[in-house]
Amino acid sequence: xxxxxSGKVKExxxxxxxxxxxxxxxxxxxxDKIIPCDIPNKGETLARTSAYWFEVVxxxxxxxxxxxxxxxxxxxxxxxxxxxxxxxxxPQTRDYLIPLECILRYFVYGSxxxxxxxxxxxxxxxxxxxxxxxxxxxxxxxxxxxxxxxLEKVDRHLNVDEALKISGVTCAEFKGLEDxxxxxxxxxxxxxxxxxxxxxxxxxxxxxxxxxxxxxxxAFGTAxxxxxxxxxxxxxxxxxxxxxxxxxxxxxxxGYHSExxxxxxxxxxxxxxxxxxxxxxxxxxxxxxxxxxDLTGQSF
Length: 300
Fold this sequence. Notes:
Elements: E1 2-6, E2 10-14, E3 19-24, E4 29-30, E5 33-34, H1 42-59, E6 66-71, E7 74-78, E8 96-107, H2 110-118, E9 139-149, E10 157-158, H3 160-167, H4 171-193, E11 197-208, E12 214-217, E13 226-230, H5 231-235, H6 245-254, H7 256-266, H8 278-296
Antiparallel strand pairs: 1-2, 2-3, 3-7, 4-5, 6-7, 8-9, 8-11, 9-10, 11-12, 11-13
Protein backbone atom coordinates (compact mmCIF):
# COMPACT_ATOMS: atom_id res chain seq x y z
CA UNK A 1 0.00 0.00 0.00
CA UNK A 2 1.09 3.56 -0.71
CA UNK A 3 0.65 6.44 1.74
CA UNK A 4 -1.23 9.21 -0.06
CA UNK A 5 -2.17 11.49 2.84
CA SER A 6 -1.23 12.07 6.45
CA GLY A 7 -3.94 14.11 8.14
CA LYS A 8 -4.41 15.52 11.61
CA VAL A 9 -5.54 12.12 12.93
CA LYS A 10 -5.57 9.57 10.09
CA GLU A 11 -3.13 8.24 7.54
CA UNK A 12 -4.74 7.33 4.23
CA UNK A 13 -3.26 4.53 2.13
CA UNK A 14 -4.03 3.61 -1.45
CA UNK A 15 -5.04 -0.05 -1.73
CA UNK A 16 -6.26 0.13 -5.33
CA UNK A 17 -8.07 2.56 -7.61
CA UNK A 18 -11.28 1.50 -5.84
CA UNK A 19 -10.26 1.14 -2.19
CA UNK A 20 -8.43 3.06 0.53
CA UNK A 21 -7.31 2.10 4.00
CA UNK A 22 -7.56 4.51 6.93
CA UNK A 23 -5.09 4.14 9.79
CA UNK A 24 -6.37 5.92 12.89
CA UNK A 25 -3.43 7.31 14.86
CA UNK A 26 -3.25 8.34 18.53
CA UNK A 27 -2.73 11.98 17.51
CA UNK A 28 -5.23 14.57 18.69
CA UNK A 29 -6.10 17.98 17.31
CA UNK A 30 -8.27 20.90 18.41
CA UNK A 31 -8.95 24.28 16.76
CA ASP A 32 -7.20 22.93 13.61
CA LYS A 33 -4.00 22.44 15.63
CA ILE A 34 -2.26 19.09 16.18
CA ILE A 35 -1.36 18.82 19.85
CA PRO A 36 2.28 17.67 20.29
CA CYS A 37 1.46 14.54 22.32
CA ASP A 38 -0.32 11.25 21.66
CA ILE A 39 -3.36 9.87 23.48
CA PRO A 40 -2.83 6.15 24.21
CA ASN A 41 -5.42 3.86 22.53
CA LYS A 42 -7.26 6.77 20.90
CA GLY A 43 -6.85 5.49 17.35
CA GLU A 44 -8.32 2.09 18.13
CA THR A 45 -11.36 3.58 19.86
CA LEU A 46 -12.05 5.82 16.86
CA ALA A 47 -11.74 3.04 14.29
CA ARG A 48 -13.91 0.59 16.20
CA THR A 49 -16.53 3.19 17.11
CA SER A 50 -16.73 4.38 13.50
CA ALA A 51 -17.13 0.82 12.25
CA TYR A 52 -19.94 0.27 14.75
CA TRP A 53 -21.88 3.32 13.57
CA PHE A 54 -21.34 2.57 9.88
CA GLU A 55 -22.87 -0.85 10.41
CA VAL A 56 -25.78 0.66 12.37
CA VAL A 57 -26.69 3.22 9.70
CA UNK A 58 -26.32 0.75 6.85
CA UNK A 59 -29.05 -1.28 8.59
CA UNK A 60 -31.18 1.90 8.32
CA UNK A 61 -30.62 1.88 4.55
CA UNK A 62 -28.09 4.73 4.54
CA UNK A 63 -25.35 4.32 1.95
CA UNK A 64 -21.74 4.56 3.23
CA UNK A 65 -18.19 4.03 1.99
CA UNK A 66 -17.37 1.56 4.79
CA UNK A 67 -16.14 -1.92 3.86
CA UNK A 68 -14.58 -3.51 6.95
CA UNK A 69 -12.00 -3.24 9.72
CA UNK A 70 -8.69 -4.82 8.76
CA UNK A 71 -7.11 -4.32 12.21
CA UNK A 72 -8.14 -2.70 15.47
CA UNK A 73 -7.16 0.76 14.20
CA UNK A 74 -7.43 0.23 10.40
CA UNK A 75 -10.49 0.58 8.20
CA UNK A 76 -10.96 -0.33 4.53
CA UNK A 77 -13.28 2.01 2.59
CA UNK A 78 -14.49 2.69 -0.94
CA UNK A 79 -12.41 5.29 -2.70
CA UNK A 80 -13.81 8.53 -4.13
CA UNK A 81 -12.04 11.34 -5.93
CA UNK A 82 -10.82 14.37 -3.99
CA UNK A 83 -11.19 17.36 -6.32
CA UNK A 84 -9.67 20.47 -4.76
CA UNK A 85 -10.54 22.89 -7.56
CA UNK A 86 -14.07 24.01 -6.72
CA UNK A 87 -14.64 25.17 -10.31
CA UNK A 88 -14.54 21.54 -11.49
CA UNK A 89 -17.50 20.54 -9.31
CA UNK A 90 -20.91 20.74 -10.99
CA PRO A 91 -24.32 19.06 -10.58
CA GLN A 92 -23.14 16.56 -13.21
CA THR A 93 -19.87 15.54 -11.49
CA ARG A 94 -19.81 12.02 -10.05
CA ASP A 95 -17.65 10.03 -7.68
CA TYR A 96 -16.16 12.75 -5.49
CA LEU A 97 -15.80 13.92 -1.91
CA ILE A 98 -18.20 16.79 -1.20
CA PRO A 99 -15.94 19.54 0.23
CA LEU A 100 -18.27 20.36 3.13
CA GLU A 101 -18.40 19.36 6.77
CA CYS A 102 -22.02 19.07 7.90
CA ILE A 103 -22.70 19.90 11.54
CA LEU A 104 -25.90 19.42 13.53
CA ARG A 105 -26.21 21.08 16.93
CA TYR A 106 -28.86 20.38 19.55
CA PHE A 107 -27.71 22.58 22.46
CA VAL A 108 -26.33 26.08 22.99
CA TYR A 109 -22.73 25.14 23.67
CA GLY A 110 -19.15 25.23 22.43
CA SER A 111 -18.41 27.45 19.45
CA UNK A 112 -22.14 28.10 18.97
CA UNK A 113 -22.24 29.76 22.39
CA UNK A 114 -19.13 31.77 21.48
CA UNK A 115 -20.74 33.01 18.25
CA UNK A 116 -23.92 33.97 20.06
CA UNK A 117 -21.87 36.08 22.46
CA UNK A 118 -20.01 37.68 19.55
CA UNK A 119 -23.24 38.38 17.65
CA UNK A 120 -22.23 36.37 14.58
CA UNK A 121 -25.17 34.00 15.20
CA UNK A 122 -28.56 35.36 16.28
CA UNK A 123 -31.07 33.61 18.54
CA UNK A 124 -33.69 33.75 15.77
CA UNK A 125 -31.50 31.46 13.65
CA UNK A 126 -31.79 28.87 16.42
CA UNK A 127 -35.58 28.95 16.52
CA UNK A 128 -35.91 31.31 19.49
CA UNK A 129 -37.85 34.60 19.50
CA UNK A 130 -35.72 37.73 19.09
CA UNK A 131 -36.36 38.68 22.72
CA UNK A 132 -34.96 35.38 24.03
CA UNK A 133 -31.72 35.43 26.04
CA UNK A 134 -29.84 32.24 25.30
CA UNK A 135 -28.43 30.25 28.20
CA UNK A 136 -25.30 28.11 28.05
CA UNK A 137 -26.29 24.46 27.69
CA UNK A 138 -29.97 24.99 26.91
CA UNK A 139 -31.57 22.71 24.31
CA UNK A 140 -32.41 24.15 20.91
CA UNK A 141 -36.01 24.12 19.70
CA UNK A 142 -34.94 22.36 16.51
CA UNK A 143 -31.65 20.99 15.19
CA UNK A 144 -29.31 23.71 13.93
CA UNK A 145 -27.70 22.58 10.67
CA UNK A 146 -24.64 24.37 9.34
CA UNK A 147 -21.71 23.62 7.06
CA UNK A 148 -18.05 24.52 6.97
CA UNK A 149 -15.31 23.97 4.42
CA UNK A 150 -13.62 20.58 4.34
CA LEU A 151 -10.50 20.94 2.20
CA GLU A 152 -9.17 24.29 3.40
CA LYS A 153 -6.41 24.76 5.98
CA VAL A 154 -8.78 26.31 8.54
CA ASP A 155 -12.48 25.48 8.49
CA ARG A 156 -14.75 28.44 7.73
CA HIS A 157 -18.51 28.65 8.06
CA LEU A 158 -20.53 28.92 4.87
CA ASN A 159 -24.02 30.13 4.11
CA VAL A 160 -26.16 28.00 1.81
CA ASP A 161 -25.29 29.95 -1.35
CA GLU A 162 -21.56 29.68 -0.64
CA ALA A 163 -21.88 25.96 0.12
CA LEU A 164 -23.71 25.28 -3.14
CA LYS A 165 -21.20 27.35 -5.13
CA ILE A 166 -18.09 25.48 -3.98
CA SER A 167 -19.51 21.94 -3.77
CA GLY A 168 -21.42 21.27 -6.98
CA VAL A 169 -24.40 20.24 -4.84
CA THR A 170 -27.95 21.18 -5.86
CA CYS A 171 -30.51 22.65 -3.47
CA ALA A 172 -32.33 19.32 -3.30
CA GLU A 173 -29.10 17.43 -2.63
CA PHE A 174 -28.12 19.95 0.06
CA LYS A 175 -31.43 19.26 1.79
CA GLY A 176 -30.62 15.55 1.42
CA LEU A 177 -27.38 16.05 3.36
CA GLU A 178 -29.33 17.55 6.25
CA ASP A 179 -32.04 14.88 6.13
CA UNK A 180 -29.54 12.02 6.24
CA UNK A 181 -27.55 13.67 9.05
CA UNK A 182 -30.73 14.18 11.10
CA UNK A 183 -31.81 10.59 10.52
CA UNK A 184 -28.43 9.28 11.67
CA UNK A 185 -28.39 11.54 14.73
CA UNK A 186 -31.86 10.43 15.76
CA UNK A 187 -30.56 6.86 15.84
CA UNK A 188 -27.43 7.90 17.73
CA UNK A 189 -29.41 9.90 20.30
CA UNK A 190 -31.84 7.03 20.87
CA UNK A 191 -29.09 4.47 21.36
CA UNK A 192 -26.82 6.54 23.60
CA UNK A 193 -29.73 7.64 25.81
CA UNK A 194 -30.07 4.01 26.90
CA UNK A 195 -26.53 4.27 28.29
CA UNK A 196 -27.12 7.53 30.14
CA UNK A 197 -25.61 9.84 27.54
CA UNK A 198 -26.84 12.92 25.69
CA UNK A 199 -25.82 13.52 22.08
CA UNK A 200 -25.02 17.23 21.98
CA UNK A 201 -23.83 17.72 18.40
CA UNK A 202 -22.00 15.93 15.62
CA UNK A 203 -20.23 16.24 12.29
CA UNK A 204 -20.80 14.24 9.10
CA UNK A 205 -19.01 14.12 5.77
CA UNK A 206 -20.43 12.95 2.47
CA UNK A 207 -19.46 11.96 -1.05
CA UNK A 208 -21.22 11.12 -4.29
CA UNK A 209 -20.67 7.63 -5.66
CA UNK A 210 -20.40 6.76 -9.35
CA UNK A 211 -24.17 7.10 -9.75
CA UNK A 212 -24.17 10.45 -7.89
CA UNK A 213 -25.92 8.90 -4.91
CA UNK A 214 -25.06 10.38 -1.52
CA UNK A 215 -23.04 8.27 0.88
CA UNK A 216 -21.65 8.96 4.35
CA UNK A 217 -17.86 8.85 4.56
CA UNK A 218 -14.87 9.39 6.87
CA ALA A 219 -15.96 8.80 10.51
CA PHE A 220 -18.76 9.92 12.80
CA GLY A 221 -20.32 9.26 16.19
CA THR A 222 -16.92 9.16 17.88
CA ALA A 223 -15.32 11.22 20.64
CA UNK A 224 -13.57 13.25 17.92
CA UNK A 225 -16.49 14.07 15.63
CA UNK A 226 -19.33 14.31 18.15
CA UNK A 227 -19.97 15.75 21.60
CA UNK A 228 -21.61 13.74 24.38
CA UNK A 229 -22.64 14.61 27.95
CA UNK A 230 -23.41 12.53 31.01
CA UNK A 231 -27.22 12.74 31.28
CA UNK A 232 -27.39 12.52 35.09
CA UNK A 233 -24.87 15.32 35.48
CA UNK A 234 -26.68 17.46 32.91
CA UNK A 235 -29.89 17.10 34.96
CA UNK A 236 -27.93 18.66 37.84
CA UNK A 237 -26.82 21.58 35.68
CA UNK A 238 -23.31 20.27 35.00
CA UNK A 239 -21.72 19.57 31.63
CA UNK A 240 -19.51 16.52 32.07
CA UNK A 241 -17.70 16.02 28.78
CA UNK A 242 -17.49 12.52 27.32
CA UNK A 243 -15.67 13.51 24.13
CA UNK A 244 -12.79 15.57 22.73
CA UNK A 245 -14.65 18.62 24.00
CA UNK A 246 -12.93 17.90 27.34
CA UNK A 247 -9.65 18.83 25.63
CA UNK A 248 -11.09 21.95 24.00
CA UNK A 249 -12.35 23.12 27.39
CA UNK A 250 -8.91 22.53 28.89
CA UNK A 251 -7.36 24.93 26.38
CA UNK A 252 -10.15 27.44 26.97
CA UNK A 253 -9.41 27.36 30.69
CA UNK A 254 -5.67 27.84 30.19
CA GLY A 255 -6.31 30.89 27.98
CA TYR A 256 -4.75 29.34 24.86
CA HIS A 257 -8.04 29.40 22.91
CA SER A 258 -8.53 33.14 23.48
CA GLU A 259 -4.94 33.83 22.45
CA UNK A 260 -5.31 31.74 19.28
CA UNK A 261 -8.64 33.31 18.24
CA UNK A 262 -7.25 36.83 18.79
CA UNK A 263 -4.25 36.04 16.60
CA UNK A 264 -6.52 34.73 13.84
CA UNK A 265 -8.78 37.78 13.98
CA UNK A 266 -5.78 40.11 13.77
CA UNK A 267 -4.02 38.12 11.05
CA UNK A 268 -0.99 37.52 13.24
CA UNK A 269 1.18 34.40 13.49
CA UNK A 270 -0.70 31.80 15.50
CA UNK A 271 0.80 30.71 18.82
CA UNK A 272 1.93 27.04 18.93
CA UNK A 273 -0.37 24.80 20.93
CA UNK A 274 1.31 23.39 24.06
CA UNK A 275 1.30 19.68 24.89
CA UNK A 276 -1.16 18.31 27.41
CA UNK A 277 0.27 17.46 30.84
CA UNK A 278 0.63 13.70 31.60
CA UNK A 279 -2.32 13.64 34.01
CA UNK A 280 -4.63 15.15 31.37
CA UNK A 281 -3.32 12.74 28.71
CA UNK A 282 -4.32 9.78 30.89
CA UNK A 283 -7.71 11.31 31.65
CA UNK A 284 -8.38 11.89 27.95
CA UNK A 285 -7.37 8.31 27.11
CA UNK A 286 -9.79 7.03 29.75
CA UNK A 287 -12.57 9.22 28.30
CA UNK A 288 -12.06 7.76 24.80
CA UNK A 289 -12.02 4.16 26.05
CA UNK A 290 -15.06 4.56 28.32
CA UNK A 291 -17.05 6.32 25.62
CA UNK A 292 -16.23 3.57 23.11
CA UNK A 293 -17.52 0.95 25.54
CA ASP A 294 -20.67 2.93 26.38
CA LEU A 295 -21.49 3.66 22.75
CA THR A 296 -20.91 0.21 21.33
CA GLY A 297 -21.50 -2.13 24.28
CA GLN A 298 -18.16 -3.76 23.44
CA SER A 299 -15.19 -4.28 25.74
CA PHE A 300 -11.97 -2.50 24.88
